Amino acid sequence: MNNKKKTNFNKILKTLPPDVKDQFDKSRPHLEEYLTGDQFRLWVDSGVQIASQSNSSWDITVNLFRVSPIMTGLLKPDDFMKWLNVGEDLACQYPMLGTAYFSSSPAALHNMQAEHISDWADLGSNLYKGTWKSGTLSNRFFESSGALLEQLTFEELARFAEFIDILAKHSYDLSSECLSLALRLFPLVGDDKTGFISLSLNLVETGWRQLKAFYDSSLKSLPKIDPSQRKRFLGLAERLHTSGVPNMPNTILEISQALQLINKREHGQLLDIAAPLIDLHPSAFPEFIKSSPIVLNKVSFDKLDSWCAEGKRLLQTNPDGAMAFFKIESSRSEKFLEDISSSVDFSAISNLIELYCRALAGEEINLADSRELVEKNIGWVAADSPTTEGSTVYLPETVDRYSKKSQNFLWYKVVSTHQVGRMEFGSFRFNFYGTSHRFDNLRNALDNKTSEIAGSNVSAATDIQRFFNLFEERQLSLDIFSIVEDGRVDAKIKDEYKGISKGYKSIQSDALALRPNVRELKSREALLELLVQISLGETQPISVPKKYKTQALNIVKIARHCMNAQSTVEDTAEATIRIYRILIDVLNDEVDEDDWDPLDFEDESSEGDNFSDPEGLQQSLDSMGSASGDDPADTLEENYNSPQEVDYRGEFKPELTQLLEKLREQGQFRDGDNDSESITQEMMEEFAQNTVELSQELNEGVGSITNDEVVENMLKEVGLQKPESLEGGQGPLVHIDETGGELEADEPETFVYDEWDFRAGDYKPRWCIVRQKYMAEGEDAYYGSIVQSYGNLVMQVRRQFELLVPETMRKQRRLQDGEDIDIDDVIETMVDIKTGSSPNEKMYWRRNKVHRDVAVVFLLDTSASTAEAIDDSKSINDQSTAPEDPVEYMLWLRSRRGEGSKRTYKRIIDLEKEALILLINAIEAIGDTYGIYGFSGYGRENVEFYTIKDVDELFSDKVKRRIDRISPLHATRMGPAIRHSTSKLASLDARTKLMFLISDGRPQDRGYSREGVEKEYAVHDTKMALDEARSKGINPFCLTVDRNGHDYLKTMMTEMGYEVLDDIHALPHRLLYLYRKLTT
User: Fold this and answer.
1) CB 381 within 8 A of CB 702
2) What tens digit of pLDDT does each residue of 203-253 get?
3) Which of 51, 64, 673, 910 is the most buried (most CB within 10 A)?
4) CA–CA distance from 109 to each of 112, 159, 879 (Å)?
C-alpha cells in the first residue's frame, strides 16, 4: 500500500457503480474528520484498489465505506489503518471473503482486542480452500465471530476455528451445521468452553459423524442441568467418550433427561455418587444416572448411595449382573430397593386395592393414577392428591409419608376407603328436594327467595349447583360443605367398616397433627379450622377468638349433629346453610395474642334427635340471599383463604362430579327418552361462570386453560359437545361431529393414522389417534381354570399342532438334477419328443427342507356389544340377552358390567378369551411369532389399542393375567386398529404374515358408522386398511360371530378371507382349525 500512487479518486470513483460513490459520499465527512489527510487518502485508495479487482469487487468497497464510520468508534486511527490494511490484503487475495470480513468487523471488534485483527483474519481465511463450499464456511465464520466472541475468549475462538477446520476435511456441510449450532450452544456451556471444544476435537478424531447429533443432544441436554454442574457434566462426558462408551449423543441426552427429573440443587450430590463408576465400569455411569429418578422416588439420597455401593460391589465379580442391577432389571436390584425403601408404589398395590374397593362398594370400582385425571384437563389439577370423579378412584403415584411400608400401605387403604365412601354414601347423589332427617329444611325457602331477587327461576345444570347458587360467597359455602360432608363420610365409614376403623382413626390422628396453629389464622379462617379439626375427631380444647366464642360453640353443635352415621348428604347441605350464616357475620380480621380463649367442647353433645337451631339463627337466615353494601362479608373474597387440605381426603369437587355424571347419563340416553332435564348450553355457560371448583384451579396455576376449555374437555370426556344455541336458547347436548382438523400425537405411546373417506376418494390426513397401552392384569387362576375346563381337547390340539413342525420336507419337481428321476416328467418329455415339441430337460426331483416362518397378530374386538350373553337357554326374566330398546340396552349393559363375580352366564367376550387361551397353548408348541391385541375406543381421538401379548414379548404369567382382564369396553373403530397392527407386522421378518381379526359385528364408532352413508363410511375405511395390509405382504382374515356379517363383509373383505360363524359355541374349535389351515 505504501507504493501506491496518489490517485484522482473523484475521477476514478465516477467510473465505478453509483452505489460506491453514494456510500463514499455518506462516509467521507466522518472519515475526513477522524483521519489525517494521508490516512484518508490511503483509505480511499484501498477502496479503489479493492473495487478494481473484478466486476463484483465493488460490493466489497461499498461494505468497506459503509462500516468505516462505525469502526472509527471502536478503534484508534493507527488500529483503524491496521484493520484497513488487513482487509485490503484479504479482499485482494480472496475476493470471496472481503465482504464478510468488513461487514462482520463491527460485531467482532466489540469483543476483540485490536491486536487480534490480523489473527482473526487468518482464522477465517485458513478455512478457505479455494472451493465454493469452503468459501461459504469461511464467510459464515466471519459472520458468526461477533456472536461467538460474546461467549469465547480469542484463544477459545482460535481453538474452535481449528475444530471447524478439521471437521471440514470430512464434511463442509457438517462443519457449517456445527458452527451454526455452536452459536446457540456456547451460552449454555458455562465457564468450561475449552473443555467442550476439546471434547468436540476428540469426537472429530474418533467419530466425526456423531458431531451433529452430539451438538443437537447438547442443546437439549444442557438446559436440563444445574448451571453450576454443566462444566462438570461436560468433563464427565469427555471421560465417558475417552473410555469408549458408544453413541455419546444419545448417552448424554438420556443422562440429562434423567437429571431433569431430579431437583437441580441435588445434581451435584448425584454426580458425586456416580462419578467413581466411570473408573470402575464406564457404561455403568449412564445406567445409574438413568435409574436414579426411579430410585429416589423410593429412597433418600443416603440410601441411593447404599444402592450404588451395592452395584459397585457387584461390578467386581459380575459386571453383567451389575449392569442389570443399575438398570433395575434384576430381582436382586428390586429386592435391594425393596429392602431399603419404605415407600409404596401405586402400581404395586393397585390390583389389591382395587379388589378391596370393589368389596367395599359391592360393585365395579376402578383405580387409576391421579395424574391420568389431571391430564384430562377437566378441572382436577393435583397430580399427587387422591380424589374421585364419581366412577374411578384416583390415587397418587407413590406414598412415602412414613418410615414403614405397612404404614404407607395403610394410608393408601384409608385414602381409597374415603373415596369409595364418597361414592357409596351419596356425596355425589345430592337431591335439592331430598329430605333432611336431622334438620328442618331451609333450602326451599332460600331458593324461592333467591328466585325472587333474581326476578325469575334460576336454572342449574345439577342439584348441587342449584344448592350453591343460594350463597353469595360461593367459596365459603363450598369449603363448609366439603368439611362437613367429609366428616360425615368418615363417621359413616368407621361405623360401616369396622375392620378398618382402628387404622382409619390412626391416619386421622396423623392428619390432625399436621393442622396449622389456629392462633396464626384470622378470625373466620380460625373458625373454619375449628370445623376441620372437629371433623377429624379432635377432643382437646381449641383456641378461638374470644368475641366469637358463642359462634364457635354453635358451629361445633351443628357439625356434630351432622357428622354421624345416620346423616345424609342432604343433612350436610342443611348444616352448611346454618354454619354459613354464622360465619358470614364474622369479620376475617387479625386477632391479638391476648384475644384468644380455649373452647372446651368435649362435653358438648349433639342432643340426638332433639336438636334445635341455635337461638336467633332462624331470624338471621332471613337476610341470606340479599346483597347489602354494608355487609362485612363484602370483602370476603379478597382476604379469605380456604383451609389447608386434609391429605387423606384429597380433592373434593361435588359440582364437577355431579355434572359429569349427569352428562354421562345424557350421552347414554341420547337416542331415547330420559326422565331428567337435559343440560342446555345456557346451563353450561352459567356453570362455567359461577363455579369456584374451576376458577379456583385457574387461580392456582393450571396454565392457560380457561373455564370454557375445561367445560369443553368435560364434554369430550363423556362424548358430547357444546350445542349451538337453538331459537329460544334450549339446545340439548349432542354427539361430537367428525369435523375438525389434523390431530397430533403429543403423548407417549400415541400414534396418528390417516382415515379413508370413500366419498371423497381420498385420505383424511392424521385423522385418528391410537393410544397404545398394556391391558391391566388380573389373576393367574383364570388362565389355568380355562385350560383345565377344556381338559383333553387342550392336549389333542397341542399334539395336532406339534405335527406341523416335522412337515418341513417338501418334494420339489422339475429340477436339472436331484435325488431321482420323476417318472411323470419323463413321460411328458417323451410325448413332447414324439409330437415334435421342445422337451423339458428338467426331469429330476428332490426333497427340500422348508422352515416354518410365521408371524401372526390376533386383533380382538372388545367393544361393548361383546358383553351380550350367548346362552340362549336363559329365560327372558334372567335378562342375559340384550334388549332391543336402546335405552333399556344401555341400562342392561351397565348392569352387566357391574355384576362381576355374580355372573352365571357366558358372554361373547368370555368365549373369545377361551379361544385365545386354547390357541396360545397350541402356538407355543410350534414356536410361531404372535401378538394378541384388543381394541376399542370412543371417537377418532381415542382409539384404544390394548397389548395383551406383544409380538416381541415372550409368553409369561403377565400375559395370563392380562387375558383375565379382557372385558367389554366402548365402540369399534376398526380402521386405525388395523393400521396400527399392520405397522407391527410390517416390521417383522417372516415369510408368512397373518392378521386375524375377531369381531362380533360391523365397525362402528361415534361419527364413524351411523345409519345411511355413515354406515358405509366405516366399512370402506376398514376395507382400505385391510388393503393396505395386503399391499405390505400381510394376509388378513376376519372371523365374526355376527350372523348378519355377510351384509358388510362381502364388501369389507373383497378378495380376502372371512368366515361368519353361525354357532358361537364353536368359536374355540373353529379358530384353531382356521389358524392351522391359514398357516400351512
Assistant:
1) yes
2) 888 888 888 888 888 888 899 999 999 888 988 988 888 888 888 888 999
3) 64
4) 5, 18, 88
